[in-house]
């Protein structure tokens, strides 16, 4: 009997590579979002420090600190918009990754079932050969009447 070969093996390998690519894209998008969140935390910390200094020093530098605070608020608003965009991108990539996983799982299941069928047929063929050998080797008795 010929060796087992899965006709869709190349497609399965392609889909596995696609799944790996989507996984890499997802991790990159999540890490980019995390960097933006870290930047936002730093801006918020700077805003809190600016607010504390403004309340402590009611002097001529307040106007400068107010402009600095306004700039930080503008940066915070921009980074919030970036996070929203990254969240949308992450959701799209996550859905594509889930679909890729499903595609690979379907082909893997088909491959496993075909391999099980092949093994079952192989066992049947081996059993038939063993039965044939057993009947050929057994001594034939002659019956006399």
Notes on the structure:
This protein is mostly helical and 145 residues long. It has a domain at 9-99. The chain contains two helices and no strands. The two termini are 44 Å apart. The model has no long low-confidence stretch (mean pLDDT 83).
Summary of the model, kept short:
With 145 residues, the chain is mostly helical.
Chain oligomer state? single chain
Shape: rod-shaped
Largest sheet, strands/sense/barrel: none
H and E string: HH
Average pLDDT taken over every residue = 83
Poorly predicted segments: none
N-to-C terminal Cα separation, in Å? 44 Å
Which class best fits the helix and strand makeup?
A: mainly alpha
What is the number of helical segments per DSSP (H or I, 4+ residues)?
2
**Approximately what portion of the residues adopt beta-strand conformation?**
under 5%
Please compute the radius of gyration using only Cα atoms: 35 Å
Q: Count the beta strands.
A: 0
How helical, in percent, are the residues? over 70%
